[in-house]
Amino acid sequence: MFFKFLKGRNKKVDNALAIEIQQAVSDLSTFSKWRLKHGQKIFLGLETRKNWTGYSPFYLFWCQNCSRYAKDYPRGFFQNYLCCPFCETTYDF
Ligand SMILES: [Zn+2]
Question: Would you say the pTM of this structure is higher than 0.85?
Fold first, then answer.
């Protein structure tokens, strides 16, 4: 727990991302939201970030740990997991 606190996340980035996610979720149908809460991921599109050379596919998913919608791209050597940007819980992709 304390370790997590020490790592310190950039609140500003988190807030911007939270707004981005909120907007993506508001465009979804009730059925899509239901699907998210039942463990499905929704492809949002290809996006790039500061200091990236290319684009990655971003997905919307439901984080069971912090009970909120999250958005991330497949990470890891095999690009096989998503990471909640708020609590850093990982989910198999
Ligand atoms: Zn989370």
Answer: no
Using CA atoms, how far residue 56 sits from 31, 65, 72, 80, in Å, is: 25, 24, 9, 13
Neighbours of 9 (CB within 10 A): 13
Give me ligand 1 centre to Cα 85, in Å.
Answer: 7
Distance 89 CA to ligand 1 centre (A): 6
> What integer pLDDT is reported at residue 1 of this predicted model?
43
* Residue 7 pLDDT greater than 70, yes or no: no
Task: Report how far ligand 1's centroid is from the alpha carbon of 69 (Å).
Answer: 8
Cα(80) to ligand 1 centroid in Å equals: 17
CB of 85 closer than 8 Å to CB of 17: yes
Q: What is the largest CA-CA distance in the chain?
A: 39
